Amino acid sequence: MHEIIKKTVTKNESIRRKLTDIRQDNLQQILDAAENIFADRGFRGTTVAAIADNVGLPKANVLYYFKTKEGLYKGVINRLLTIWMDNMNEMSADIHPRESLRNYIVNKIHQSREYPNASRIFADDILHGVNYLRGPLEGELKDQFDRTCDVFRCWIDKQWIDDVNPEHLIFMLWSTTQAYADHSLQMSILMNKPQLDDSDFEQGVKVATQVILKGCGLSD
Amino acid sequence: MHEIIKKTVTKNESIRRKLTDIRQDNLQQILDAAENIFADRGFRGTTVAAIADNVGLPKANVLYYFKTKEGLYKGVINRLLTIWMDNMNEMSADIHPRESLRNYIVNKIHQSREYPNASRIFADDILHGVNYLRGPLEGELKDQFDRTCDVFRCWIDKQWIDDVNPEHLIFMLWSTTQAYADHSLQMSILMNKPQLDDSDFEQGVKVATQVILKGCGLSD
DNA sequence: GTCTATAAGCTGATAGAC
DNA sequence: GTCTATCAGCTTATAGAC
Known about the structure:
The structure is a homodimer. Helix content of chain A is 79%, strand content 0%. By secondary structure, chain A is mostly helical. In chain A, helix 1 crosses helix 2 and helix 1 crosses helix 6. The first copy, chain A, is elongated. Chain A starts with a helix and ends in a 5-residue tail after the last helix. Chains A and B meet through helix 1, helix 6, helix 7, helix 8 and helix 9 of A and helix 1, helix 6, helix 7, helix 8 and helix 9 of B. The first copy, chain A, binds a DNA duplex through helix 1 and helix 3.
Protein backbone atom coordinates (compact mmCIF):
# COMPACT_ATOMS: atom_id res chain seq x y z
CA MET A 1 0.00 0.00 0.00
CA HIS A 2 2.79 2.31 0.82
CA GLU A 3 4.24 1.56 -2.52
CA ILE A 4 1.01 2.38 -4.33
CA ILE A 5 0.56 5.68 -2.56
CA LYS A 6 4.13 6.61 -3.21
CA LYS A 7 3.84 5.65 -6.82
CA THR A 8 0.65 7.68 -7.24
CA VAL A 9 2.17 10.71 -5.60
CA THR A 10 5.27 10.39 -7.70
CA LYS A 11 3.21 10.08 -10.85
CA ASN A 12 1.08 13.10 -9.96
CA GLU A 13 4.15 15.15 -9.22
CA SER A 14 5.72 13.98 -12.39
CA ILE A 15 2.68 15.11 -14.36
CA ARG A 16 2.52 18.40 -12.55
CA ARG A 17 6.20 18.89 -13.19
CA LYS A 18 5.72 18.20 -16.87
CA LEU A 19 2.79 20.60 -17.13
CA THR A 20 4.76 23.23 -15.32
CA ASP A 21 7.56 22.74 -17.80
CA ILE A 22 5.17 23.12 -20.74
CA ARG A 23 3.74 26.21 -19.15
CA GLN A 24 7.17 27.71 -18.55
CA ASP A 25 8.23 26.81 -22.04
CA ASN A 26 5.15 28.39 -23.63
CA LEU A 27 5.47 31.51 -21.51
CA GLN A 28 9.09 31.81 -22.57
CA GLN A 29 8.33 31.33 -26.26
CA ILE A 30 5.45 33.81 -26.21
CA LEU A 31 7.57 36.42 -24.43
CA ASP A 32 10.40 35.91 -26.93
CA ALA A 33 8.12 36.35 -29.93
CA ALA A 34 6.32 39.30 -28.35
CA GLU A 35 9.64 41.01 -27.58
CA ASN A 36 10.76 40.78 -31.19
CA ILE A 37 7.49 42.00 -32.66
CA PHE A 38 6.96 44.79 -30.12
CA ALA A 39 10.53 45.97 -30.84
CA ASP A 40 9.88 45.88 -34.55
CA ARG A 41 6.45 47.48 -34.79
CA GLY A 42 5.83 49.21 -31.47
CA PHE A 43 2.99 48.55 -29.05
CA ARG A 44 0.16 49.81 -31.24
CA GLY A 45 1.58 48.26 -34.39
CA THR A 46 1.75 44.82 -32.82
CA THR A 47 -1.19 42.39 -33.00
CA VAL A 48 -1.72 39.40 -30.74
CA ALA A 49 -2.32 37.31 -33.86
CA ALA A 50 1.15 38.12 -35.18
CA ILE A 51 2.70 36.97 -31.92
CA ALA A 52 0.62 33.79 -31.86
CA ASP A 53 1.55 32.99 -35.47
CA ASN A 54 5.20 33.50 -34.67
CA VAL A 55 5.05 30.99 -31.82
CA GLY A 56 2.82 28.61 -33.79
CA LEU A 57 0.02 28.81 -31.23
CA PRO A 58 -3.61 29.85 -31.64
CA LYS A 59 -4.35 33.42 -30.67
CA ALA A 60 -6.68 32.34 -27.88
CA ASN A 61 -3.89 30.32 -26.32
CA VAL A 62 -1.65 33.35 -26.10
CA LEU A 63 -4.45 35.31 -24.45
CA TYR A 64 -5.03 32.41 -22.07
CA TYR A 65 -1.50 32.89 -20.76
CA PHE A 66 -1.46 36.67 -20.65
CA LYS A 67 -5.14 37.66 -20.53
CA THR A 68 -4.60 40.97 -22.37
CA LYS A 69 -2.24 42.53 -24.90
CA GLU A 70 -1.25 45.10 -22.29
CA GLY A 71 -0.40 42.34 -19.83
CA LEU A 72 1.84 40.72 -22.40
CA TYR A 73 3.52 44.06 -23.08
CA LYS A 74 4.13 44.59 -19.38
CA GLY A 75 5.54 41.08 -19.17
CA VAL A 76 7.99 41.86 -21.94
CA ILE A 77 9.02 45.19 -20.41
CA ASN A 78 9.54 43.66 -16.97
CA ARG A 79 11.70 40.87 -18.33
CA LEU A 80 13.80 43.36 -20.30
CA LEU A 81 14.17 45.59 -17.26
CA THR A 82 15.56 42.68 -15.27
CA ILE A 83 18.20 41.93 -17.90
CA TRP A 84 18.85 45.67 -18.28
CA MET A 85 19.45 46.23 -14.59
CA ASP A 86 21.44 43.00 -14.11
CA ASN A 87 23.76 43.68 -17.01
CA MET A 88 24.28 47.26 -15.94
CA ASN A 89 27.77 47.69 -14.64
CA GLU A 90 27.36 50.67 -12.41
CA MET A 91 30.19 53.12 -12.16
CA SER A 92 32.05 53.48 -8.92
CA ALA A 93 33.34 56.62 -7.24
CA ASP A 94 36.52 54.79 -6.27
CA ILE A 95 37.51 53.52 -9.68
CA HIS A 96 39.09 56.17 -11.87
CA PRO A 97 36.78 57.39 -14.68
CA ARG A 98 39.48 56.67 -17.23
CA GLU A 99 38.62 52.98 -16.83
CA SER A 100 35.17 53.22 -15.33
CA LEU A 101 33.70 55.59 -17.91
CA ARG A 102 35.36 53.79 -20.82
CA ASN A 103 34.02 50.49 -19.53
CA TYR A 104 30.54 51.93 -19.27
CA ILE A 105 30.55 53.15 -22.88
CA VAL A 106 31.95 49.89 -24.23
CA ASN A 107 29.33 47.98 -22.29
CA LYS A 108 26.40 50.14 -23.36
CA ILE A 109 27.25 49.96 -27.06
CA HIS A 110 27.79 46.22 -26.71
CA GLN A 111 24.35 46.00 -25.16
CA SER A 112 22.86 48.01 -28.03
CA ARG A 113 24.25 45.41 -30.38
CA GLU A 114 23.42 42.27 -28.43
CA TYR A 115 20.04 43.29 -27.05
CA PRO A 116 18.66 45.95 -29.40
CA ASN A 117 15.07 44.98 -28.54
CA ALA A 118 15.35 46.43 -25.06
CA SER A 119 16.59 49.81 -26.23
CA ARG A 120 14.02 49.97 -29.04
CA ILE A 121 11.04 49.03 -26.91
CA PHE A 122 12.06 51.52 -24.24
CA ALA A 123 12.52 54.22 -26.89
CA ASP A 124 9.07 53.55 -28.32
CA ASP A 125 7.52 53.59 -24.87
CA ILE A 126 9.04 56.99 -24.10
CA LEU A 127 8.44 58.42 -27.55
CA HIS A 128 4.70 57.68 -27.54
CA GLY A 129 1.92 57.78 -25.07
CA VAL A 130 2.21 54.16 -23.94
CA ASN A 131 4.60 55.00 -21.16
CA TYR A 132 4.56 51.89 -19.01
CA LEU A 133 8.13 52.80 -18.15
CA ARG A 134 6.96 55.73 -16.07
CA GLY A 135 6.72 53.53 -12.98
CA PRO A 136 10.23 52.03 -13.19
CA LEU A 137 11.61 55.43 -14.23
CA GLU A 138 10.24 56.96 -11.07
CA GLY A 139 11.54 54.04 -9.01
CA GLU A 140 14.49 51.75 -9.58
CA LEU A 141 15.76 53.49 -12.73
CA LYS A 142 15.71 56.85 -10.98
CA ASP A 143 17.66 55.40 -8.06
CA GLN A 144 20.31 54.17 -10.43
CA PHE A 145 20.33 57.52 -12.21
CA ASP A 146 20.78 59.39 -8.94
CA ARG A 147 23.57 57.07 -7.81
CA THR A 148 25.42 57.61 -11.08
CA CYS A 149 25.05 61.38 -10.74
CA ASP A 150 26.55 61.12 -7.26
CA VAL A 151 29.51 59.18 -8.64
CA PHE A 152 30.10 61.92 -11.23
CA ARG A 153 29.90 64.63 -8.57
CA CYS A 154 32.43 62.68 -6.53
CA TRP A 155 34.80 62.55 -9.51
CA ILE A 156 34.36 66.29 -10.02
CA ASP A 157 35.12 66.96 -6.34
CA LYS A 158 38.27 64.89 -6.59
CA GLN A 159 39.09 66.83 -9.76
CA TRP A 160 39.30 63.57 -11.68
CA ILE A 161 37.04 65.05 -14.36
CA ASP A 162 35.99 68.57 -15.38
CA ASP A 163 32.92 70.22 -13.91
CA VAL A 164 30.30 68.77 -16.26
CA ASN A 165 26.62 68.70 -15.31
CA PRO A 166 26.12 65.05 -14.26
CA GLU A 167 22.46 64.71 -15.32
CA HIS A 168 23.06 65.91 -18.85
CA LEU A 169 26.30 63.98 -19.16
CA ILE A 170 24.30 60.81 -18.50
CA PHE A 171 21.71 61.84 -21.10
CA MET A 172 24.56 62.26 -23.54
CA LEU A 173 26.05 58.87 -22.69
CA TRP A 174 22.69 57.16 -23.05
CA SER A 175 21.62 58.79 -26.31
CA THR A 176 25.03 58.31 -27.93
CA THR A 177 25.30 54.63 -27.05
CA GLN A 178 21.63 53.68 -27.53
CA ALA A 179 21.66 55.23 -30.98
CA TYR A 180 23.53 52.08 -32.06
CA ALA A 181 20.28 50.21 -31.42
CA ASP A 182 17.55 52.79 -32.08
CA HIS A 183 19.10 54.50 -35.13
CA SER A 184 21.03 51.59 -36.59
CA LEU A 185 18.79 51.55 -39.66
CA GLN A 186 19.47 55.23 -40.34
CA MET A 187 23.20 54.73 -39.82
CA SER A 188 23.40 51.79 -42.20
CA ILE A 189 21.45 53.63 -44.91
CA LEU A 190 23.68 56.70 -44.66
CA MET A 191 26.81 54.56 -44.83
CA ASN A 192 25.50 52.49 -47.75
CA LYS A 193 25.45 49.19 -45.90
CA PRO A 194 22.79 46.51 -45.54
CA GLN A 195 23.43 46.63 -41.79
CA LEU A 196 26.02 47.68 -39.22
CA ASP A 197 29.01 45.35 -38.92
CA ASP A 198 31.89 44.76 -36.50
CA SER A 199 33.91 47.75 -37.68
CA ASP A 200 30.96 50.12 -37.25
CA PHE A 201 30.47 49.16 -33.62
CA GLU A 202 34.23 49.40 -33.10
CA GLN A 203 34.28 52.90 -34.60
CA GLY A 204 31.27 53.84 -32.49
CA VAL A 205 33.04 52.78 -29.31
CA LYS A 206 36.20 54.53 -30.42
CA VAL A 207 34.55 57.86 -31.21
CA ALA A 208 32.33 57.86 -28.13
CA THR A 209 35.18 57.09 -25.73
CA GLN A 210 37.63 59.39 -27.50
CA VAL A 211 35.29 62.40 -27.49
CA ILE A 212 33.58 61.91 -24.14
CA LEU A 213 36.70 61.02 -22.13
CA LYS A 214 38.72 63.89 -23.53
CA GLY A 215 35.64 66.13 -23.36
CA CYS A 216 35.43 65.46 -19.64
CA GLY A 217 39.06 66.48 -19.21
CA LEU A 218 40.63 63.04 -19.22
CA SER A 219 43.86 63.06 -21.18
CA ASP A 220 44.63 60.06 -23.37
CA MET B 1 -20.98 94.34 -72.90
CA HIS B 2 -17.31 94.59 -72.18
CA GLU B 3 -18.20 95.60 -68.68
CA ILE B 4 -20.47 92.62 -68.14
CA ILE B 5 -17.90 90.17 -69.39
CA LYS B 6 -15.23 91.71 -67.24
CA LYS B 7 -17.45 91.65 -64.20
CA THR B 8 -18.31 87.98 -64.71
CA VAL B 9 -14.68 87.02 -65.13
CA THR B 10 -13.74 88.95 -62.04
CA LYS B 11 -16.48 87.29 -60.06
CA ASN B 12 -15.46 83.80 -61.23
CA GLU B 13 -11.87 84.47 -60.36
CA SER B 14 -12.89 85.83 -57.01
CA ILE B 15 -14.84 82.68 -56.29
CA ARG B 16 -12.05 80.47 -57.49
CA ARG B 17 -9.63 82.44 -55.36
CA LYS B 18 -11.84 82.00 -52.33
CA LEU B 19 -12.20 78.25 -52.88
CA THR B 20 -8.48 77.96 -53.33
CA ASP B 21 -8.03 79.75 -50.03
CA ILE B 22 -10.44 77.39 -48.29
CA ARG B 23 -8.62 74.47 -49.82
CA GLN B 24 -5.23 75.76 -48.74
CA ASP B 25 -6.57 76.52 -45.30
CA ASN B 26 -8.05 73.06 -44.84
CA LEU B 27 -4.92 71.37 -46.13
CA GLN B 28 -2.87 73.37 -43.66
CA GLN B 29 -5.13 72.58 -40.73
CA ILE B 30 -5.24 68.88 -41.55
CA LEU B 31 -1.46 68.71 -41.89
CA ASP B 32 -1.02 70.55 -38.60
CA ALA B 33 -3.33 68.20 -36.73
CA ALA B 34 -1.85 65.12 -38.40
CA GLU B 35 1.67 66.23 -37.52
CA ASN B 36 0.81 66.54 -33.84
CA ILE B 37 -1.00 63.22 -33.63
CA PHE B 38 1.54 61.27 -35.68
CA ALA B 39 4.29 62.69 -33.43
CA ASP B 40 2.35 61.69 -30.35
CA ARG B 41 1.18 58.21 -31.25
CA GLY B 42 3.26 57.09 -34.23
CA PHE B 43 1.97 56.08 -37.65
CA ARG B 44 0.19 52.90 -36.60
CA GLY B 45 -1.21 54.44 -33.43
CA THR B 46 -2.79 57.31 -35.32
CA THR B 47 -6.34 57.08 -36.69
CA VAL B 48 -7.78 59.24 -39.44
CA ALA B 49 -10.78 59.82 -37.20
CA ALA B 50 -8.57 61.34 -34.49
CA ILE B 51 -7.09 63.77 -37.00
CA ALA B 52 -10.51 64.70 -38.39
CA ASP B 53 -11.90 65.28 -34.88
CA ASN B 54 -8.94 67.48 -34.06
CA VAL B 55 -9.61 69.70 -37.09
CA GLY B 56 -13.37 69.57 -36.58
CA LEU B 57 -14.01 68.00 -39.98
CA PRO B 58 -15.72 64.72 -40.91
CA LYS B 59 -13.40 61.82 -41.54
CA ALA B 60 -14.52 61.55 -45.16
CA ASN B 61 -13.50 65.15 -45.76
CA VAL B 62 -9.96 64.49 -44.57
CA LEU B 63 -9.77 61.48 -46.87
CA TYR B 64 -11.14 63.59 -49.71
CA TYR B 65 -8.06 65.82 -49.42
CA PHE B 66 -5.47 63.12 -48.90
CA LYS B 67 -7.08 59.96 -50.29
CA THR B 68 -5.24 57.61 -47.90
CA LYS B 69 -3.71 57.65 -44.44
CA GLU B 70 -0.32 56.88 -45.98
CA GLY B 71 -0.65 59.86 -48.31
CA LEU B 72 -1.35 62.10 -45.35
CA TYR B 73 1.66 60.69 -43.54
CA LYS B 74 3.87 61.33 -46.54
CA GLY B 75 2.48 64.85 -46.75
CA VAL B 76 3.45 65.47 -43.13
CA ILE B 77 6.94 63.99 -43.58
CA ASN B 78 7.59 66.03 -46.71
CA ARG B 79 6.54 69.27 -45.07
CA LEU B 80 8.75 68.53 -42.05
CA LEU B 81 11.68 67.66 -44.30
CA THR B 82 11.40 71.02 -46.01
CA ILE B 83 11.53 72.89 -42.69
CA TRP B 84 14.29 70.54 -41.51
CA MET B 85 16.50 71.14 -44.52
CA ASP B 86 15.78 74.88 -44.68
CA ASN B 87 16.57 75.47 -41.01
CA MET B 88 19.70 73.39 -41.24
CA ASN B 89 22.71 75.61 -40.97
CA GLU B 90 25.31 73.53 -42.66
CA MET B 91 28.82 73.70 -41.38
CA SER B 92 31.53 75.20 -43.53
CA ALA B 93 35.10 74.04 -44.03
CA ASP B 94 36.26 77.67 -43.95
CA ILE B 95 34.68 78.70 -40.68
CA HIS B 96 36.58 77.47 -37.65
CA PRO B 97 34.83 74.59 -35.82
CA ARG B 98 35.05 76.52 -32.57
CA GLU B 99 32.20 78.69 -33.88
CA SER B 100 30.77 76.43 -36.55
CA LEU B 101 30.40 73.32 -34.41
CA ARG B 102 29.10 75.26 -31.42
CA ASN B 103 26.56 76.96 -33.64
CA TYR B 104 25.42 73.63 -35.00
CA ILE B 105 24.84 72.19 -31.54
CA VAL B 106 23.01 75.27 -30.30
CA ASN B 107 20.83 75.21 -33.40
CA LYS B 108 20.01 71.52 -33.22
CA ILE B 109 18.98 71.62 -29.58
CA HIS B 110 16.95 74.76 -30.29
CA GLN B 111 15.23 72.86 -33.08
CA SER B 112 14.51 69.93 -30.75
CA ARG B 113 12.74 72.36 -28.50
CA GLU B 114 10.86 74.42 -31.10
CA TYR B 115 9.97 71.62 -33.51
CA PRO B 116 9.94 68.40 -31.49
CA ASN B 117 7.38 66.84 -33.85
CA ALA B 118 9.90 66.55 -36.66
CA SER B 119 12.47 64.74 -34.57
CA ARG B 120 9.87 62.44 -33.02
CA ILE B 121 8.20 61.47 -36.28
CA PHE B 122 11.58 60.79 -37.89
CA ALA B 123 12.61 58.71 -34.87
CA ASP B 124 9.43 56.66 -35.06
CA ASP B 125 9.84 56.16 -38.79
CA ILE B 126 13.37 54.83 -38.32
CA LEU B 127 12.59 52.81 -35.21
CA HIS B 128 9.75 50.86 -36.80
CA GLY B 129 9.02 49.33 -40.13
CA VAL B 130 7.25 52.35 -41.62
CA ASN B 131 10.41 53.76 -43.04
CA TYR B 132 9.15 56.37 -45.51
CA LEU B 133 12.35 58.22 -44.72
CA ARG B 134 14.40 55.66 -46.58
CA GLY B 135 14.00 57.59 -49.83
CA PRO B 136 15.13 60.99 -48.51
CA LEU B 137 17.85 59.26 -46.46
CA GLU B 138 19.26 57.75 -49.62
CA GLY B 139 18.95 61.07 -51.44
CA GLU B 140 19.05 64.62 -50.13
CA LEU B 141 19.76 63.69 -46.50
CA LYS B 142 22.67 61.49 -47.56
CA ASP B 143 24.08 64.33 -49.67
CA GLN B 144 24.00 66.62 -46.68
CA PHE B 145 25.52 63.89 -44.50
CA ASP B 146 28.36 63.37 -47.00
CA ARG B 147 29.01 67.11 -47.29
CA THR B 148 29.25 67.42 -43.52
CA CYS B 149 31.66 64.48 -43.35
CA ASP B 150 33.81 66.25 -45.95
CA VAL B 151 33.84 69.40 -43.86
CA PHE B 152 35.00 67.40 -40.84
CA ARG B 153 37.74 65.73 -42.89
CA CYS B 154 38.85 69.15 -44.04
CA TRP B 155 39.08 70.36 -40.44
CA ILE B 156 41.08 67.26 -39.55
CA ASP B 157 43.48 67.85 -42.46
CA LYS B 158 43.99 71.44 -41.35
CA GLN B 159 44.54 70.06 -37.82
CA TRP B 160 41.74 72.25 -36.54
CA ILE B 161 40.25 69.24 -34.78
CA ASP B 162 41.53 65.82 -33.70
CA ASP B 163 41.28 62.81 -35.97
CA VAL B 164 37.73 61.77 -35.11
CA ASN B 165 35.75 59.50 -37.43
CA PRO B 166 33.40 61.98 -39.18
CA GLU B 167 30.45 59.61 -39.70
CA HIS B 168 30.25 58.56 -36.08
CA LEU B 169 30.87 62.09 -34.85
CA ILE B 170 27.75 63.16 -36.73
CA PHE B 171 25.78 60.26 -35.25
CA MET B 172 26.90 61.47 -31.84
CA LEU B 173 25.90 65.06 -32.57
CA TRP B 174 22.49 63.99 -33.84
CA SER B 175 21.62 61.57 -31.05
CA THR B 176 22.81 63.93 -28.33
CA THR B 177 20.87 66.92 -29.61
CA GLN B 178 17.73 65.09 -30.77
CA ALA B 179 17.43 63.41 -27.39
CA TYR B 180 16.07 66.78 -26.18
CA ALA B 181 13.01 66.06 -28.35
CA ASP B 182 12.78 62.25 -28.40
CA HIS B 183 13.68 61.55 -24.76
CA SER B 184 12.38 64.72 -23.15
CA LEU B 185 9.72 62.75 -21.27
CA GLN B 186 12.35 60.44 -19.79
CA MET B 187 14.57 63.38 -18.87
CA SER B 188 11.80 65.26 -17.12
CA ILE B 189 10.71 62.17 -15.14
CA LEU B 190 14.28 61.48 -13.98
CA MET B 191 14.75 65.10 -12.94
CA ASN B 192 11.39 65.24 -11.14
CA LYS B 193 9.89 67.92 -13.36
CA PRO B 194 6.57 68.14 -15.18
CA GLN B 195 8.53 69.10 -18.30
CA LEU B 196 11.88 70.48 -19.43
CA ASP B 197 12.33 74.21 -18.89
CA ASP B 198 14.69 76.97 -20.05
CA SER B 199 17.49 75.96 -17.70
CA ASP B 200 17.39 72.33 -18.87
CA PHE B 201 17.88 73.29 -22.50
CA GLU B 202 20.63 75.71 -21.45
CA GLN B 203 22.39 72.96 -19.52
CA GLY B 204 21.96 70.62 -22.46
CA VAL B 205 23.63 73.08 -24.80
CA LYS B 206 26.36 73.74 -22.28
CA VAL B 207 27.23 70.09 -21.67
CA ALA B 208 27.04 69.11 -25.34
CA THR B 209 29.28 71.97 -26.50
CA GLN B 210 31.66 71.63 -23.57
CA VAL B 211 32.20 67.89 -24.02
CA ILE B 212 32.11 67.65 -27.80
CA LEU B 213 34.29 70.70 -28.54
CA LYS B 214 36.92 69.74 -26.00
CA GLY B 215 36.53 66.10 -27.01
CA CYS B 216 37.43 67.04 -30.56
CA GLY B 217 40.57 68.79 -29.37
CA LEU B 218 39.25 72.34 -29.31
CA SER B 219 40.55 74.17 -26.24
CA ASP B 220 38.13 76.47 -24.45
C1' DG C 1 -4.89 23.10 -20.77
C1' DT C 2 -6.10 23.71 -25.77
C1' DC C 3 -8.49 25.39 -29.65
C1' DT C 4 -12.60 26.65 -32.76
C1' DA C 5 -16.06 29.91 -33.31
C1' DT C 6 -17.70 34.18 -32.58
C1' DA C 7 -18.84 38.44 -30.34
C1' DA C 8 -18.23 43.48 -30.09
C1' DG C 9 -15.98 47.26 -31.53
C1' DC C 10 -12.93 49.99 -34.28
C1' DT C 11 -10.46 51.36 -38.78
C1' DG C 12 -9.56 52.81 -43.44
C1' DA C 13 -12.00 53.78 -47.24
C1' DT C 14 -16.09 54.67 -50.46
C1' DA C 15 -20.84 55.66 -52.38
C1' DG C 16 -23.96 58.86 -53.13
C1' DA C 17 -27.19 62.67 -51.61
C1' DC C 18 -26.76 67.52 -51.13
C1' DG D 1 -16.62 70.67 -52.41
C1' DT D 2 -19.01 68.68 -48.27
C1' DC D 3 -20.99 65.31 -45.36
C1' DT D 4 -24.04 61.24 -43.94
C1' DA D 5 -24.32 56.45 -44.16
C1' DT D 6 -22.20 52.35 -44.68
C1' DC D 7 -19.04 48.59 -46.01
C1' DA D 8 -15.48 45.20 -45.58
C1' DG D 9 -11.87 43.90 -42.92
C1' DC D 10 -9.25 43.53 -38.90
C1' DT D 11 -8.52 43.65 -33.65
C1' DT D 12 -8.98 42.37 -28.89
C1' DA D 13 -11.17 39.38 -26.15
C1' DT D 14 -14.35 35.59 -24.64
C1' DA D 15 -17.54 31.41 -24.67
C1' DG D 16 -17.73 26.87 -24.81
C1' DA D 17 -16.66 22.25 -26.94
C1' DC D 18 -12.97 19.02 -26.49
